[in-house]
Design a protein that fits this description.
The structure is a single chain. The chain is mainly α. Helix content is 64%, strand content 0%. It contains five helices and no strands. The longest helix has 13 residues.
Length: 69
């Protein structure tokens, strides 16, 4: 029978669970982080001093130059 991720994580030692969780956070995408902060692309762009299309390009994985506003 297949185990789900919660079962696998629960079976790991606490220190290993923490390392897995920490690594997962490192792998979070810009879009995930922006959405967690409840910001639009426009709001994040304004905060960073770049254009919205720069944020869009970064989120979809385009190689983009950082376009200043």
């Amino acid at each position: 029978m297949a185990r789900n991720l919660d079962d696998v994580m629960a079976s790991l030692p606490k220190a290993r669970q923490k390392r897995v969780a920490d690594r997962a956070m490192e792998l979070a995408t810009l879009k995930d982080l922006r959405q967690a902060a409840q910001q639009t692309q426009e709001e994040l762009a304004a905060t960073l001093g770049v254009r919205q299309d720069t944020i869009s390009g970064l989120e979809i994985g385009e190689q983009v130059a950082l376009n200043k506003r």
